[in-house]
Amino acid sequence: MSLTLSAWEWLSLLGGSGVALVTLLFTLGRLLLAQVERRLDSRFALLEQTRQIASAQWGDRFGQLDTVVRANEHRLTQLLIDLPLQYQRREDSIRQEVAIIHRLDALATKVDHLSTCDLRTCPIRDHHLPGTP
Predict the structure, then answer these.
(1) Which of 40, 20, 16 is nearest to 28 (CA)?
(2) Is the pTM of this model over 0.90?
(3) Span 11-15, mean pLDDT?
(4) What's the number of CA atoms in the CB half-sphere (13 Å) around residue 83?
C-alpha cells in the first residue's frame, strides 16, 4: 500500500495541520491567560481587603490620637486658666518684698524714736499732738 498525494493535497494537509496547531496554541494561550487573570483577580481582591483592614486600623489610631490631642489641649487650656491663681510673677514678688521692707523700715524708725522717749518729752507724742508745747 502506498500513499500518493498530489501537491494540492499535501498543501491542504499541511494547511489543515497548521490551522489545527494554531487553533490549539490559541486555545492554550487563552486558557493560560484566563488562569493568570484569575490569579491576579484573587491577589488584587486580597490586597484590597488588606488595604481596607489597614485603613480601618489607621483610622482607629488617628481617632485615638485625636482624642489624646483634644485632651491635652483641654488640659493646657485649664492650666492657662489656673496659672495666674497659682503662680506669682517675679516682678510681683519683688514689689511685695519691697513694700514689706519699707513697712519694716518705718516700724524700725518708730521703735528708734520710742527708745529716745522719756517721761517728760517724747518726739513721737509731740509730733502727733500739734497743740502741746
Answers:
(1) 20
(2) no
(3) 88
(4) 8
How far apart are the C-alpha atoms of 90 and 92, rounded to whole Å?
5
Set of cell numbers at residue 122: 517724747
3-state secondary structure the chain: CCCCCCHHHHHHHHHHHHHHHHHHHHHHHHHHHHHHHHHHHHHHHHHHHHHHHHHHHHHHHHHHHHHHHHHHHHHHHHHHHHHHHHCCCHHHHHHHHHHHHHHHHHHHHHHHHHHCCCCCCCHHHHHHCCCCC
48-100: pLDDT as tens digits: 999 999 999 999 999 999 999 999 999 999 999 988 887 778 888 899 999 99
Residue 123 pLDDT greater than 70, yes or no: no
